[in-house]
């Protein structure tokens, strides 16, 4: 007891120097006692925060998120098997509970922030650009339309379906609106969206597999029993069929929305506790004289051609064997042409980088690092399909008209993704050399055309104040005023030089790079549209299915096709960022 009391006295003497005199005085008031307790708790909280490193917090959050993801995946796999362990209502109840937890957290955070208005709000410059918000809002609107159709379908079939089929789209709509307007990079939100993405992928894959079974049964290849996707009771409204058919056309957008949000929130989570450089928020003055003609024209031509191929394919693949083979051959011929053009365009961009020798941008950037890893990781799905096709063509016992075009398409797809990955990643890690910046990177040029720590304004990024005491935060605010004055003085000194550099007319090689970026941008949209809306010859050509068997090949497709779709949409976002950066 004596030792414990001495420790308490030392602690109070360190953080509350007037505690002994206040306690000895018989006239101490309850107000001073309350202030003393607040200071003690504040000091204790700050001491604990210092002893708990940020890396440990990241590891703890990551473990929580991974286990949350695995629980959801286990439920979805049990649902896919159609066993007694899990039903559709079970999965939807689990996802609804996760979304409600996230919504409650958002509300609590907003209430807490309103009470602490003196603290400046955290901002993530890497996750708040206008084009990111615009793309996210567009996908969110399509997801909301999908929720409205789900609610309409539930109203028509409410006599014979579970109440969760009506609760889930309502909660999902609230969740979507809240996420778009209030973005918080917490790990629970990241993995909640990953589970929603996984649920959408499995639903869409099941629908595509049932369509494939129906086509095989109609052509007499197999005799499959396809379970009905709609409820068995009669619909009470006349729009149920419209709602059901429209859901599968909106499903790809909902899938891309959730994976897009997951990547965005993951970057925000990684940025917690970091102060980003001012370079993230710098906006270049648009350079005049840019000739963007060839890239957009060729890109629009590819987009129009892909829509035409999609319509013809969907119509003829349901018909006779001859029409089916003609539709598959048409798809492969179109794919060979567009992939060859994309490979040449990407190689041209890489050649320009080698000739120009642009300097590397080594600024730490979690968003850019994640982009590179996602591009390489999501390429695995398409590469697996390609090499399976090569093996299937090499050992094929039948000789359909599209056999060798399938082989050429597979090899070109591997080459195109390799070249495009190199071009996108190198573009993200390059920065253009400004006029007046010498190749030796002199000190003067480095100070003018790059941003150092001394040039970055205070609080221009994300600063996590969760474990800071108010006294410490007040000191940070006071010191930031001095930093702000220094920053304003430095930016004033160099503003003239930067302004002259930004007005420089772009070179011809830079114009070529812009055309390459916009052409690849449009082509990736085209190659996303085809499989997203039902043009999937991997299901219909029969070569791979004959080599690997129906069950194995269906498993491979259910794994690889979602990754391929994600790759194309992520490439679209990355190429737009490349276009803005060039």
TrEMBL record:
GO terms for cellular component: plasma membrane. Residues 19-33 have a biased composition (Low complexity). It comes from the Eukaryota. Residues 16-36 are annotated as: Disordered. Its main location: membrane. It is found in: Cell membrane. InterPro entries: Otopetrin. GO terms for molecular function: proton channel activity. Keywords: Cell membrane, Hydrogen ion transport, Ion channel, Ion transport, Membrane, Transmembrane, Transmembrane helix, Transport. The chain crosses the membrane at residues 59-79, 91-111, 131-149, 155-174, 181-198, 247-269, 290-315, 327-353, 374-395, 407-425, 516-534, 546-567. One of its GO terms (biological process) is inner ear morphogenesis. It is a multi-pass membrane protein. Belongs to the otopetrin family. This is Otopetrin 1.
